[in-house]
Amino acid sequence: MTEERRPAEARERPGSYGERKGPFRPRRHRRDDARGAGRPTPEKIGGLVGALLDDWGIRGRVERARAASRWEELVGPHIAGVTRNARVSGSTLFVEVEGAAWMTELGMMRRDLMRRINAGRDEGRIEKIVFLQAEGRGERDHTTG
Question: Which superfamily does CATH assign the domain made up of 65-145 to?
């Protein structure tokens, strides 16, 4: 900016009135005018999604579906290798199991599995797990004939 175009008070202070100092430009301040008045402050998207889920009355269903989708992570690779998370209906999780022996074993582990699934959840808790025999994946026939 030329010296003549700068206001008189700025001409007395070198480097003022928007002149660059080093590699950075001076900070521009927002104006508080009609364009910004009345605008809501930005919110985090997570808060908005949560509010929508509450408004629509589906937060519990979404939370239960999220818990079911984490089945493999929650039960570990060994159990995940012989099971498949089938579906959630209401507050019941249906799990397909590879064979009667595993169904018995998982039945005995049901309380621990429920604890893992519902850990840290206030809403959308799974209240019941039902183990189903997976079709075509039953016990192998060990008889010789």
Answer: DnaA, N-terminal domain (3.30.300.180)
Query: Does the model's pTM come out above 0.70?
Result: no
> What are the structural domain ranges in the chain?
65-145
Amino acid sitting at position 117: I
* pLDDT tens for the chain, residues 1 to 145: 555 565 555 555 555 555 545 454 555 555 555 566 667 777 788 778 878 878 888 888 888 888 888 888 888 999 999 998 778 898 899 999 999 999 999 999 999 999 998 998 888 889 999 999 987 644 443 333 3
- The whole-angstrom separation of Cα 7 and Cα 1 is 11
Q: Which two tokens stand for residue 49?
A: 């999604």
Identify the bridge partners of residue 96 per DSSP, sorted by sequence position.
Answer: 84, 132
CA dist 95 and 83 (Å) reads: 7
**C-alpha separations of 66 from 62, 85, 111, 118 in Å:** 6, 12, 19, 11
